[in-house]
User: Which sequence fits this backbone?
């Protein structure tokens, strides 16, 4: 099963472009940088490249908070009464959180992980560590949570709640891949993969579970369960 989270990729690209054009960098004197804002853009860039970026615009009040340390990069964008919180720690760690239309986005990246959470009126959370990649998207009243641990640069967890539903994806171990997507109000989909396994679940298509290396591939969804 091939699943795509179009909203996450498009929104992140737009945010990165906007921040690149509009932000003003400020050099600081430690390897820990933080910022918080409700109506303006704020950036703190350390000489060692540790960076915290906060952006808030379009109809305050908004809230954007970012914390970065040990060569990490954290970006938080709050727009149209949205809330965003990003934490990044460790070399190569990147966390990007976006909250719009009253939504809440939270991204946490550690030890080289990449986490991107976009909330468009819902609640989105993404957490990654050890080269894990986690992506999440939540539409109004939706809840999406993606967690990836040590999955490698090309693998991880993706969760998308395209309606007032719940999507949860968890992956752990090199090559592990977990997808969870819900599009129908009130439905719940979860996917869990370990040790290089693949688990993909949806509320509009049958689940797919491919266990590998003695690992776990597990899906729970309205369209059926596996693993």
Assistant:
């Amino acid at each position: 099963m091939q699943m795509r989270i179009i909203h996450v990729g498009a929104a992140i690209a737009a945010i990165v472009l906007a921040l690149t054009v509009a932000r003003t960098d400020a050099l600081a004197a430690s390897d820990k940088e933080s910022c918080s804002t409700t109506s303006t853009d704020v950036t703190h860039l350390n000489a060692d490249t540790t960076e915290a970026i906060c952006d808030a615009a379009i109809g305050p009040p908004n809230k954007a908070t970012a914390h970065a340390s040990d060569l990490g990069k954290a970006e938080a964008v709050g727009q149209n009464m949205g809330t965003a919180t990003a934490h990044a720690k460790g070399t190569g760690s990147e966390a990007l959180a976006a909250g719009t239309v009253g939504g809440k986005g939270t991204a946490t990246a550690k030890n080289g992980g990449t986490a991107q959470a976009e909330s468009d009126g819902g609640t989105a959370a993404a957490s990654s560590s050890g080269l894990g990649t986690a992506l999440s998207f939540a539409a109004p009243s939706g809840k999406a949570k993606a967690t990836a641990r040590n999955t490698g640069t090309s693998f991880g967890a993706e969760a998308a709640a395209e309606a007032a539903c719940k999507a949860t994806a968890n992956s752990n171990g090199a090559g592990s891949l977990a997808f969870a997507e819900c599009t129908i109000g009130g439905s719940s989909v979860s996917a869990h993969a370990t040790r290089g396994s693949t688990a993909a679940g949806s509320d509009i298509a049958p689940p797919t579970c491919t266990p590998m290396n003695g690992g776990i591939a597990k899906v729970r969804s309205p369209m059926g369960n596996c693993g």
